[in-house]
Amino acid sequence: MFSRRKFLMQACGGIGGLALSNLLSQEGLLGATAGGRPGRTHHQPKAKNCIYIYLEGGPSQMDLYDPKPMLNRLDGQALPDSMLANMRFAFLAKESARIMGTPRTFKRHGQCGMELSDLLPHIGSIADDICLIRSMHTDQFNHVPGQLLMNTGSAISGRPSMGSWLSYGLGSENKNLPEFVVLICVGRGVPGGSASWASGFLPSKYSGVMFRNEGSPVLNLDNPEAITRAIQERNIKGVSELNALRHAQVRDPEIESRIAAYELAFRMQSAAPELMDLSNESQATLDMYGVNRSEPKIESGNQLGGTGLFGTFARNCLMARRLVERGVRVVQVIHASWDHHSRINTDLPHNCLMADQPIAALVKDLKQRGLLDDTLVICGSEFGRTALGENRPGARTVTGRDHHPNAFSLWLAGGGVKGGQVIGETDDIAWNVAKDPVHVHDLHASILHLFGFDHTKLTYRFQGRDYRLTDVHGKLVPKLFA
To answer: What is the pLDDT of residues 334-357, one digit of tens each?
Structure first.
């Protein structure tokens, strides 16, 4: 079917072209246009790696980050109808709902005097390194669309995740591990699923690769018995050559992604065992993260957050540092769930006891190794909790809070962020933003800015339109930048 000349031309254009492209990329010689193709930023970046700690479910801001003494003074009282008129809730019956106070106490931390809950003593110890945003707000009040908006910039499934955009824009710093790794520690699961770390319409090579918590990080990574590395190498080479020939015919970018996936998996067979082996970490480091902590029992069973996860979450935080050290561009650490519709005074302390120490240890560890300056750490969720106690029909008691998109908190550290400060304010009961509002799109625009990108120019053409992480929205938050 092929003349010899046609075969050689297509083989050279396919296999040779891919090989040349790969070599130029490795040497940093394959630049990009300002339109956002991989390899070149729009301005000098402050950050080059990202660790995104995602606490799925919506942690309660007034119990953790945003002290509101007025809540206890108004405990049991109804809100004015004017404040409830246009509000939508997931489960709460707003006509009979009442304000619910909090048993939490707040203390000032660091030279900056940042006020944080008694549930976060370890994060309090890094207060001078973090920038706490108390004025976040979003458009979504349910988990799946809220998670999609926070992670992909759109409440509709199918858009590239923030990690995928960063991988696409910056390219890779390592040859033997994925550009974007996802570490999950779940009780009930993540409602938004893999759409929160998928590449959407970007080539699939930019999608997050989910690592397992034990054994081989990826299923089927190890060779079967009797398959030597030499045999495996010949197989991969042969498959890549066939895929390259097909790519020369149809120019489908997913074929390139498939070639890259086979070759990466082959290289990971050597890199993954060393990555997962924590035996070369000092005992002091393991203790700092709390890898071998004992987990206290919880009377309610902690049905949402799950039990038995203290060690897993600590290992994932430590693994995030190890991945960044080895050149992985983006690491997303996910824990589910912080969706405390009930038993908030039991389950929230349990979750905080699990997460507070390892998260703070990660920031301290990055800092002492000289990695925090160019590693952006983000700790957040899709929304917050309401000042009203949840009184869903059929519930005997009111022991939790419903979803609240109008005002919530999250924090960032490192990677060009100005630490030791609080951005924004909410009203007396954390119902609405009172000062310096920051929308999810604004947060994304500012994160891209830290990585050297103008969020309006990092685009990808799909179905005749230039898409971006911030869609047609977003403005920078100048106070965030050092």
So the answer is: 999 899 999 999 999 999 999 999
